[in-house]
Write a structure and sequence with these properties.
The complex is a heterodimer of chains A (136) and B (404).
Chain A lengths: L4 H8 L14 E8 L4 E9 L5 E9 L2 H14 L4 H4 L4 H8 L6 H32 L1
Antiparallel strand pairs in A: 1-2, 2-3
Helix pairs in contact in A: 1-2, 2-5, 4-5
Chain B lengths: L4 E2 L10 H7 L1 H4 L11 H21 L6 E4 L2 H15 L6 E5 L4 H11 L4 E5 L9 H7 L4 E5 L13 H11 L2 E5 L18 E5 L10 E5 L28 H39 L4 E3 L9 E5 L5 H7 L3 E2 L1 E2 L12 H5 L4 H5 L1 E5 L6 H20 L2 H7 L13
Parallel strand pairs in B: 1-11, 3-4, 3-5, 5-6, 6-7
Antiparallel strand pairs in B: 2-8, 7-8, 9-10, 10-13, 12-13
Classes of the chains: A alpha+beta (136), B alpha/beta (404).
Chain lengths: 136, 404
Amino acid sequence: MAYSDKVLDHYQNPRNVGSLDKSDPNVGTGVVGAPECGDVMKLQIRVDDSGKIVDAKFKTYGCGSAIASSSLATEWLKGTSVDAAAQIKNTQIVEELSLPPVKIHCSVLAEDAIKAAIDDWKAKQQARTTSQEVKA
Amino acid sequence: MKTPIYLDYSATTPCDPRVVQRMLPFFTDTFGNAASRSHSFGWTAEAAVEEARSQVAQLLGAHEKEILWTSGSTEANNLAIKGVAQMYRPKGNHLITAITEHKAVLDPMKYLETQGFEVTWLPVDGQGNIDLAELEAAITDRTILVSLMAANNEVGTVHPLERIGALCKRKGTLFHTDATQAAGKIPLDVEAQHIDLLSLSAHKMYGPKGVGCLYVRRKNPRVRLTAQMDGGGHERGMRSGTLNVTGIVGMGEAARICREEMATEVPKLRAMRDRLEARISKALPDAVRNGNPDARLPHLANVSFPYVEGESLIMGIKDIAVSSGSACTSASLEPSYVLKGLGLGDELAHSSIRFSLGRFTTEQEVDFAADRVIAEVKRLREMSPLWEMVQEGVDLSKVKWTLH
């Protein structure tokens, strides 16, 4: 499979590999995919009080395109707002990495991982607000 | 040491330089058509073809008149399976094969199913072995052919040819074996192993691509085939088409070298393969070896690396040429049907690598390859959420994944 230079670069020098504390209320974690499908992505964001993503980390089990898609996603997430992050589309990833048609599912997975991480963070915020209301 | 290192000899082999030397004059000087009976160009070509036929026959313990030249194993398998099915249709319409056979056997069988034939697809156990009792039970008086490969191309498991052959003979059904991967690696003897038809390909045994042969037994019993190609009636009417004299000469020489050098070559291959496996296992104790650990090809190792994905691993070891059972290396997005046939979970099938060593492999290359694979598996594990979960004590089989 001939990969674009950008995919190869992300594969060889992945950005932001690692993990954030998933019990931290400011951290949102998304895990998507399944081992039997050949890819699992874990994407995490840390959000500050203003709704800005201050850190993003990933770990991916999958092909080179899956690793590159999630690595690129973390680059885009860092420094952006949660609302802007929610607008990221898989087609932007396809375009940036020049993914071949057979690898489009990797970009879809990355988009799903971003959404799952945001949803997790939102759910935590909701829970925190609710528990604060209860306390009050 | 030059890179990339070639460890994919089960896909194809380079030509042995001795084979090339033997072939060269047949491109230019002795270029005759082996079917030309009226002049010396034809006679020379025919003599070379017959010498090659004898060399291949000797590798199999066969008579030279029992060898039919083809374009390779795919054609030989098609001719054996469809040719027998059509010729023996009055006797029965049942054929038997196994789910781990090469596509060149599976697909002709599937075609026959559309033509009113019935096929029994034998399962295999976790090592790729068929159950002989199950084979015996499957044979009926309507069975005309059993086709089981000598050795599997992905995991290297060797079938007990002699016992299968004896069983088929006792039950009165023909036995075909695709010996493409086995030639020059394990002893083949069509008499001792009771083989009625056998397919070979030159390019898996240090000969050129585009040539192969089918052994067709001519007595006890005399096997007859319906030709699959109509034309000039070459090869006793069973395979028309001008002979690829140059390729055939190469295949003959390749067969001679395999026969004469197998006894010294095989132990060397086995020692290097074992060295590769031991080095990997020592550094990565949870690597899984696939196939039958005892009855298997000496030059092949199929290993799964849990928690990393095969294609990304192959990308990381670009300086080593190997094959993967991963979906991502094929157009189909399905992991290897052979590994799945052995009952491997998709995850292990996705992360499998086939290393196949050969005549020109060195210990230095094997060590380099093992070390590169180990380093890359470790790097990818650091990136793998599955590896992280396992380190945290998570049972991956209990996780609810989001299927996509």
